[in-house]
């Protein structure tokens, strides 16, 4: 069963719309536009305000080195003598070469910390400022000013070098703490607004679709005839009804079971846990403190900190298939993930509770040397709300799949896929993915953050490539 047929020529694929075009924020407003221009970081590019910080660190090392060379040349008149007296015969009371070395040390530490690793904490710049200030003060007392003044016409350059070595680190600390971090946080919040506008949350109450009760029966919700919600949704429902879905997809996702399964007590317990996990995931999803971490043409990754689960990730993008097709791949065709998802080595269903709930086992392939293999036992459940499909998962225990001694058992926190039809194209979906996972083991947080963001982008790209391959398959042409 492949993707829905497309009316366009497969040999000439249509241009993919930028996911951000679904948003409604007005970027022509002066304040948001200026904040994004200064603090936004897209993909691997660093923000303009952070680039200016790098420029400031570069100016520091260049200017201090220039002042040292100027002071030394005014005193010794020869490059050879400068090399011998200032470097080879270095003395703390006779040479200012240590000020140039100190500026180079500041440059290396700040560039590595805030440009290469893109740290946001002020600790390192504060340490470098304190170290530089302490060394400059000691140098002021220990340097032989009287002796150098008698023979050195460049003593004023030496004074300026010490003043510069003391003042510039304080300027760097101030700029990072009061300009770089606030500007990037502001831009991150605005980008989060753009994503939230582009991907509005699904209704918090169930629509007319069927919902399982605890005993395995089916209950229904039907709005009053002629209600406002029904009339407002009428046009969208008619458009969606024109999509030609495979017959078995309609049976599985749009029609209730004729003879619903009666659940055992343990199965009802699993069902309740899955429903609680869905409610928890939706509450986290609707948090207001999301910040955009990474962003490119295909999607964006946001993060927020939850008091119970810690750091939670959210991906938002679009996929080239209808929500029903994507849900079928994610839920009903779990075992096939090993064919298109490079991060999964094994995936299978341990127990099927009903047509909407199951317990699965997943063995991940790690993160290419960053994180080793992990396995998970997850409880999954999907629901339909309005025109959107929700697929949630949470870590669980099952007697058929106990932990293995050779593999670290990860703990799946709230996971939620949200699939909604595109506003502009019939066979395209808005795709949102909430992820929280405890990988266990002794892993530093920055390694986990790097691995999680990268794996989410890779997963979305792999899923998109799989959907495109299904669309291009002969049975769908």
UniProtKB/TrEMBL annotation:
Membrane topology: Multi-pass membrane protein
Top-level taxon of origin: Eukaryota
Residues in MENTAL domain copies: 46-223
Keywords: Membrane, Transmembrane, Transmembrane helix
Residue numbers spanned by region Disordered: 208-234
Residues of the START domain: 287-472
Name the record gives this protein: Putative steroidogenic acute regulatory protein
Organism in which the protein naturally occurs: Rhipicephalus microplus
């Amino acid at each position: 069963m492949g993707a829905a047929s497309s009316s366009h020529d497969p040999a000439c694929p249509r241009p993919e719309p930028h996911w951000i075009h679904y948003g409604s924020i007005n970027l022509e407003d002066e304040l948001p536009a200026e904040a994004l221009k200064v603090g936004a970081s897209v993909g691997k590019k660093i923000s303009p305000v952070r680039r200016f910080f790098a420029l400031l660190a570069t100016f520091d090392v260049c200017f201090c080195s220039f002042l040292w060379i100027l002071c030394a040349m005014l005193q010794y008149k020869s490059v050879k003598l400068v090399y011998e007296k200032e470097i080879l015969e270095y003395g703390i009371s006779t040479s200012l070469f240590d000020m140039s070395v100190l500026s180079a040390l500041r440059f290396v530490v700040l560039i590595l910390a805030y440009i290469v690793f893109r740290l946001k904490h002020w600790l390192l710049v504060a340490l470098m400022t304190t170290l530089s200030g302490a060394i400059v003060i000691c140098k002021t007392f220990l340097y032989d000013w009287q002796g150098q003044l008698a023979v050195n016409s460049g003593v004023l350059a030496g004074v300026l070098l010490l003043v510069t070595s003391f003042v510039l680190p304080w300027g760097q600390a101030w700029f990072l703490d009061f300009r770089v971090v606030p500007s990037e946080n502001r831009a991150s919040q605005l980008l989060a607004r753009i994503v939230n506008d582009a991907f509005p949350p699904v209704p918090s109450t169930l629509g007319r679709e069927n919902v399982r009760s605890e005993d395995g029966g089916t209950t229904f919700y039907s709005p009053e005839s002629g209600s406002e919600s029904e009339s407002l949704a009428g046009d969208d429902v008619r458009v969606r009804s024109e999509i030609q879905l495979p017959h078995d997809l309609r049976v599985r996702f749009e029609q209730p079971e004729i003879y619903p399964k009666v659940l055992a007590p343990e199965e009802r317990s699993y069902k309740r846990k899955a429903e609680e996990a869905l409610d928890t995931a939706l509450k986290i999803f609707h948090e207001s403190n999301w910040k955009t971490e990474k962003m490119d043409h295909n999607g964006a990754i946001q993060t927020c900190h939850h008091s119970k689960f810690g750091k939670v990730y959210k991906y938002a993008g679009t996929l080239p298939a209808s929500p029903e097709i994507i849900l079928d791949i994610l839920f009903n065709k779990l075992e096939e993930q090993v064919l298109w998802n490079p991060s999964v080595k094994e995936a299978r269903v341990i127990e099927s509770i009903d047509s909407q709930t199951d317990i699965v086992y997943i063995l991940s392939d790690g993160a290419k040397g960053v994180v080793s293999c992990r396995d998970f036992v997850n409880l999954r459940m999907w629901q339909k709300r309005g025109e959107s499909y929700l697929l949630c998962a949470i870590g669980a225990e099952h007697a058929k799949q106990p932990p293995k001694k050779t593999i670290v058992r990860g703990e799946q926190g709230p996971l939620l896929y949200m699939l909604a039809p595109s506003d502009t194209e019939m066979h395209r979906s808005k795709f949102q993915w909430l992820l929280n996972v405890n990988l266990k083991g002794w892993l530093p947080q920055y390694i986990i953050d790097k691995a999680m963001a990268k794996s989410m982008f890779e997963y979305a790209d792999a899923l998109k490539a799989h959907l495109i391959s299904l669309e291009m398959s002969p049975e769908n042409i």
